Amino acid sequence: MQPAPLQRHSFSHFEMSEERGFLPVPDPLASCSLCPELEWLGGQLPKLLAARQLRNTIHTMQDLLPGRKDNWTVDTYRYANRILSFAAHGYIWENPDHPLNRLPANLAVAWSEVSRRLGRPPVLSYASYALDNWRRLDPSRSIELDNIVLLQNFLGGLDEEWFVAIHVDIEAKAGPAMAAILRAQEAAERDHADKVTKELMTLASTMESMCSTLDRMPERCDPYMYYHRVRPFIHGWKNNPALPNGLVYEGVEEYREEPQYFRGETGAQSSIIPALDAALGITHAEDPLTVYLAEMRHYMPPAHRAFLERLEHQQDHAGRPLLSGYIMDHKSNKPDLWQAYHECVQLLARFRATHLDYAATYIHQQSEKQSTNPTSVGTGGTPFMEYLKKHLEETKPIGQ
């Protein structure tokens, strides 16, 4: 039995919107009177890290969360998880040469409780690092690079700010892309080829703007500064030689003082590229990266994960991907349709090529001075260069 067709009015069910894609509506909470201890800790965190006093400060704190949470909303939980995630990673990596493999109970228990409520593991994820970590300078204007700043930093500074803001801007631009995909699928199901072509042209336009934003990364994020000042704090504790025995979450009953192993924050936890792959019929032969990317779904907000699963199961009567199957059927008699589709695939390849170039420049080519910040693996703990190249090569139109 085929799943019900995805429709744009179902976006809210997946915690999405046509205007801003996977970014939250309303904007993330910048402050919260329900969490005074956390609000103070979040505000002081960059200064405490700079002085290497975050660990000592956390040891002096008692309950980081209020006893009752009856009036907490999902926005409150996201707010709390953002600060707890930054605090925990700051605690672990405060001295990058000597990371700690135990998290004190006052931090571990609160973090586990909040992350469980959000359906994600207790580790800094892309959702807390980027999706839920921005505010608009002018609330009347759109979400774009010259109007967004971060709500929470580690050390702070231009390079950290710009690195994350680039991702937020791309996420905002992806909203119309996701809507165009669903409209194109609806049109394909109704055999409206001209409408499919129009929506693919819209998709290409939004993808072009996403690529243009990604191209701007080097403007204010220097590779050396990223590698030495931004990257060390976002590592996880799975497949990480600096924490080979994982992390013990003290006081968390379900873990029973046994080490836990979670991947670090990475853009691979964004839903954009998997959604574009699914819509355009791009498939990847199984390799360590595809296995890793499947694992990354567990770090996404559950609603976004559900959207990807639904999108990937949109099929025609022949069991083929709904949109790309339709395009393949009309390749010869609808050249404009094929051209619009081909442009979308080329733009996805361009996005991947730029990302591969940054992976080389910002990580692989840096001089590895600390075993705790390796150049051969990503923050998620995978050897990335070989497989990123392979996935770029596999980004080609169906039937080729």
Layout of SSEs?
Elements: H1 36-50, H2 54-60, H3 74-93, E1 102-103, H4 105-118, H5 126-131, E2 135-136, E3 148-149, H6 158-189, H7 193-215, H8 217-220, H9 223-230, E4 248-249, H10 272-280, H11 288-296, H12 302-312, H13 322-329, H14 335-364, H15 385-393
Parallel strand pairs: 1-4
Antiparallel strand pairs: 2-3
Helix pairs in contact: 1-3, 3-4, 6-7, 6-10, 6-13, 7-14, 10-14, 14-15
Would you write up a description of this structure?
It is a single chain. The protein has 400 residues and is mostly helical. The chain has a single domain, classed as Up-down Bundle (Methane Monooxygenase Hydroxylase, Chain G, domain 1). The protein is 51% helix and 2% strand. The protein contains 15 helices and 4 strands. A two-stranded parallel sheet has the order 1-4. Strands 2-3 form a two-stranded antiparallel ribbon. Helix 6 runs parallel beside helix 10, helix 6 crosses helix 13 and helix 10 packs antiparallel against helix 14. It is globular and about 70 Å long. It starts with 35 loop residues before the first helix and ends in a 7-residue tail after the last helix. 42% of the residues are buried. The mean pLDDT is 94.
